[in-house]
Design brief:
It is a single chain. By secondary structure, the protein is α/β, with parallel strands linked by helices. The chain is about 45% helix and about 20% strand. It has helices at about 40-55, 80, 85-105, 120-130, 155-165, 165-175, 180-185, 200-210, 215-225, 230-245, 250-260, and strands at about 1-5, 10, 15-20, 25-30, 60-65, 70-75, 110-115, 115-120, 130-135, 140, 175-180, 190-195. It has an 8-stranded mixed beta sheet, sandwiched between helices. A hairpin with a 3-residue loop joins strand 2 (about 10) and strand 3. Helix 4 (about 120-130) packs across helix 5 (about 155-165) and helix 9 (about 215-225) runs antiparallel to helix 10. The structure holds octanoyl-coenzyme A.
């Protein structure tokens, strides 16, 4: 890792740009000649970047995007995929799933700033993020069936959880590529913004989250992510435990006191 300026740190990974400015880490998939397609090296670079972002206490949130003006990520690298045996492909699928689990459970908000094609593994990567903001020109889809494949980076699982079984099956079985506004209508993205506003809007969403108590943000993420994987009763038990944990923090004392004293809270993340 090379320190560029006091304010920003940039690390040199082969296929991913990784930069930290203030409390935000910026992860940019950087293979624009192949529309940022994910080869094994890119998955490994993503893992390194997100491990660092997760471990660094100065990083409070991440923005994930794609280099160039055409694609977020146009899916797995088909040139690489074509040579994989069944056994290798299964291993590769599991590896990508691990990286996306890391992103989903980072304990910090990750905003996908979708600046173009988000197809196959690209759509799946966006879905592992906490929030998706799309530019007006973004396009989404799970076109794996057109290649003789099923989605292999979580699409068959995260898409129905996000937009419902019927809508997910229509997208997966048709392999259709949809516009940003349609993705918004389906609930696949949180917001659609003009392309020039994409990163600014992602930053504004993070800044609003950063104004809140850090542990409460982390535990809210945990409650939603883990709770969705269990029964309602189990999820409610988890919620009550995390509510209790938060209630014992300094930040809860500060948050409630600040409200009663009609002033802005000063959270410490303790
Ligand atoms: N892999 C490799 N190269 C790609 C990919 C890709 N996914 N997408 C685009 N490229 C390359 C093109 O081959 C082309 O290269 P070249 O200039 O050398 O010919 C360059 O990027 C530009 O692309 P196009 O000329 O095709 O640009 P267009 O504007 O005409 O079309 C599209 C853009 C519609 C995005 C088109 O490129 C396309 O359909 N791409 C493939 C999309 C796709 O099918 N994605 C799903 C892949 S499968 C997958 O993601 C499975 C995930 C699970 C993986 C599990 C681990 C292995």
């Amino acid at each position: 890792m090379t320190a560029m300026t006091a304010a920003a740190t940039v690390s040199a990974l082969e296929n991913v740009l990784y930069e930290k400015k203030g409390a935000i880490a910026y992860v940019t998939v950087n293979r624009p000649k192949v529309l940022n397609a994910l080869n094994q090296g890119t998955w490994e670079n993503l893992r390194s970047a997100f491990e660092d972002a997760g471990d660094d206490p100065a990083v409070r949130g991440v923005i994930l995007t794609g280099a160039g003006d055409k694609a977020f990520i146009a899916g797995a690298d088909i040139g690489e995929l074509t040579h994989l045996t069944g056994v290798e492909a299964e291993k590769s699928s599991s590896y990508g799933q691990e990286v996306l689990n890391l992103i989903e459970n980072l304990g910090k908000p990750v905003i996908a700033a979708v600046n173009g094609y988000a197809l196959g593994g690209g759509c799946e990567t966006a879905m592992a993020c906490t929030i998706r903001v799309a530019s007006e020109s973004a396009k989404f889809g799970q076109p794996e069936v057109r290649l003789g494949l099923v989605p292999g980076s979580g699409g068959t699982q995260r898409l129905p959880r996000l937009i419902g079984r019927g809508r997910a099956l229509q997208l997966i079985l048709s392999g259709a590529i949809i516009e940003a506004q349609e993705a918004y209508r389906l609930g696949l993205v949180n917001e659609v913004v003009p392309t020039t506003d994409l990163i600014t809007r992602a930053e504004a969403i993070l800044q609003q989250i950063f104004s809140n108590a850090p542990l409460a943000v982390k535990f809210s993420l945990d409650a939603v992510n883990k709770g969705l994987e269990t029964s309602l009763a189990g999820g409610l038990t988890l919620e009550a435990s995390l509510f209790g944990l938060c209630a014992g923090t300094e930040d809860k004392k500060e948050g409630t006191a600040a409200f009663l004293e009609k002033r802005a809270p000063q959270f410490q993340g303790r």
